[in-house]
Amino acid sequence: MLEDPRTERVTGDHTAGIHRRADDVDAEQHPEKYREEPVPEAYCWSGLTSGNGSRALWLLLLPFMVVNIAHWMRPSVEVPARSRAVRVHGLLVRLVALSLTVLLVAAACEVALDLAAWQCAGSELCAARRDWLGFLAPEDGNWWGQPGRRLALAALVPTALTGLLWWLSHRTWSAYESQPPPAHEAVTENDPEAGARPALCLPGFWYGRRLVARLRAAHTAAGFLTVAAALAAAATRHDRKPGGSPWLDAAGWAVEVALVAAGAFVVWVVCARGRSESAPDDRLDRAVVRFLPGAALALLALTALHAAWSRPGWTSGGLLPGDEAFGVIALAQGALVIALAVVGRRMHRAAPDPRAALRGYRGAAVAMLACALGGVMSGGVAQRVADWLDGPGTPGMDDGWITGPPVVLSWQAAVIPVMLFALVVLAAYFAGQTWRVRREEIRKVRASHPGEPEDSSRTGRIAGTTARARLTDCAPWFVGVTALFTVLLGGAAVAGAWLSSEVPGRAADGTTGVVEALATTTQAVGSWLMGLGFILFIAGGRRAYKDASARRTIGILWDVGTFWPRAAHPFAPPCYAERAVPDLSWRMDTWTRLTGGRLVISGHSQGSVLAAAAVWQLDPGTRRRVALLTYGSPLERLYGRWFPAYFGPGPLHALHSEIHCWRNLWRETDPIGGPVLLPGAACDAEAHEHDVDRGPLRDPLEYGRTLLHPLPAPILGHSEYQADPVFAEERAGLLERLPEVPRQRATARLGGARPPGAGTAAAGSAGPGTAGRPGPPGGPADQESSGRSSG
User: Fold this and answer.
1) Do residues 110 and 382 touch, judged by C-beta distance below 8 A?
2) 197-214 pLDDT per residue, tens
3) Which of 52, 66, 162, 778 could covalently link to 223 via disulfide, CB atoms 3.0 to 4.6 Å apart?
4) All residues at 6 or more sequence positions from 334 whose CB lies less than 8 Å from its CB, including other chains
5) How many CB atoms lie within 10 A of CB 80?
6) Would the pLDDT of 500 be above 70?
């Protein structure tokens, strides 16, 4: 970014910091050297997204990240209806997120308790071939041979998993999200202007400690209670059979009542409170945060003790009692997603936005996608572990050593090939559309270079790049189709499992050979695809752990997915913007206060989103002394369409009106960036000759060979906007159009330390840069900040 191999960090740490060229470190002390050009600075935050190798293992938390994104996809609503509609939308997403935690822990229980401890350890054939399960075999005199004791021991696995998730959430909050924003006046709920202000302006938007702590406690307790429910279901079902112990039966009833009461309290904790953004929400509900996980863990210990109590004659066979839980979870998720779709549609109809993706259904569609990912991961690991434990047999069939996973997982696997076929058909349709667009672009490219020698190969590459760049706008179709098929086929799978109580292949017995073969084939293919999906998650994380380039690629995914605070799921990967946005806003605020100067903050790709978010956090007086330069920006094309409540036309117009100047550069060959679609004055209100957008820029800069480009100019697409002469022209123009401001105070050292730099930067995985032009002693200073993201 700084185009210099010698750089120094002027503030920040190894995780995220602001850098300058070594020659510019003392720019404030020698302003006479920088009268003509601004001094560049770069803000590098790659350590927040693609830092060390362990960060790649966050891929396993992908369903949690996706459902957290769904929370922020609510439609814009009018101010009078805002409170209630927003609360209901957030409540439904939080409940979907809670169901994903229960699903993940239930999958761990299925593997450890059902497949390993209940089925394999209880089968002589399976236990004899798995030495590590030999001590659990039901032999005479073996203390661990009783099913309840085997289950209690195996419960340590999902319990440890829940504890690990709690620890990771607590640790990442302390490391990444605990940065306080600049001090602002709190916004009261009764303020008539509060509802009209963009949400990203609110002082508590990037600091929600209270909600994250409450959700972390509730989800941790839900995980412990899920393990306890699996233990209690097996023990109480045995105790209620004829000849069971009445004392154990009574204890079982007491355990179940306690589990139901604790589960209801967990749901209440999740439902009772949403985000509070009017002020930094740094208070803690200590009674909930400290008591709830500990109480759930204590109840789990009592349930394990109850299950491990001696029950002579108890043997394990078939599926572990409680296998219906997966069907119940699937139905609950479907009902919540449908309710979310109804609420989202009503909100959209109240304030229509023609540019919004999927109209009011995007939050529900993305929540359903999170549920599908969770189902693939949970079902995939269960199917693969069952195949591994069963050796040469097939789980659930006559040649198998064990019964296998619950029937509903087999039915869900059987519908995966149908869904993939639908997506392949949709992909083929858009591939045909892209081919037709490419033919049209070929004619446009030829017409735009009259008189130049024709190069059909180069023309085809330019046209193909432009056509493929438009595929980004097709994403709503793929998300919508995936969500729709997940709802329909998932409901059919649950119904088929409950009606037949057999795997699809067996359920087809007695029908024609073609139907039976088709059912068996789809179930087998789907089972392997579920397992393959989970293996790909593991392989991707393992490769990224060893390969820095792959880790940077995953960092791009985190650039988008972890930009938003954890408002729905506390176990999602941490939000880097809760560190980066305060960094940038603090830098801009303190620099303008110390120098009384002006600055330009610029950002590329995801860096432009961070730049806008940081500018929103400034007080109005400081914001008026800031110019914004964005390029390759997804502000409107992606964020405005998918997150209209925060980056839709209303918020972008408000940002446009509150800063002094804004210019946005874009190309037709860019698959991510685009125009922000804000007509009118880009700078001061008296100069209406400039729109915010400038583009589309030429790409490539020259079609053929010229004196300035003797070799073929590359097709840049989403990268290297700074290589275009328009970039330097617009940057200089923004600095010129910023108004002069009276000198408020001399540039000073802060506590005798190195003086702050003359700029701030937008963030990007590749790092952003800033540039400042210090004024003469006693005079104002100018600053320009540019940022670039690899995302």
Assistant:
1) yes
2) 788 888 888 888 888 999
3) 162
4) 487, 490, 491
5) 10
6) yes
Q: What is the sign of the dihedral through the CA atoms of 460, 462, 468 and 473? A: negative
Q: What pLDDT is stored for residue 393 in this prediction?
A: 62
Count of CB atoms situated within 10 Å of the CB of 192: 7
Look at residues 491, 200, 480 and name the one whose alpha carbon lies nearest to residue 360.
Answer: 480
Choose between 450 and 223: higher pLDDT. 223
HEC string for 23-80 = HHCCHHHCHHHHCCCCEEEEEECHHHCCCCHHHHHHHHHHHHHHHHHHHCCCCCCCHH
Strand partners, 631: 604, 665
- Residues 41/772, Cβ–Cβ less than 8 Å: yes
Nearest in space to 322 (alpha carbons), one of 100, 109, 101 = 109
772: which strand partners? 39, 783
Among 437, 452, 436, CA closest to 700: 452
Widest pairwise Cα distance in the chain: 97
Angle at 406 between CA 323 and CA 517, to 5 degrees: 155
Q: What digits encode the pLDDT tens for the residues 152-187? A: 999 999 999 999 999 988 887 776 666 666 666 555
Residue that is written with structure tokens 């009783």 in the block: 146
- Give whole-number Cα distances, 535 to 399, 482, 558, 785, in Å: 26, 21, 20, 43
This prediction has a pTM of 0.88
Residues ≥6 apart with Cβ < 8 Å to 323: 114, 406, 407, 408
The residue ranking higher by pLDDT, 49 or 774, is 49
pLDDT tens string 723-771: 899 998 998 888 888 876 554 433 333 332 333 333 334 433 333 444 4
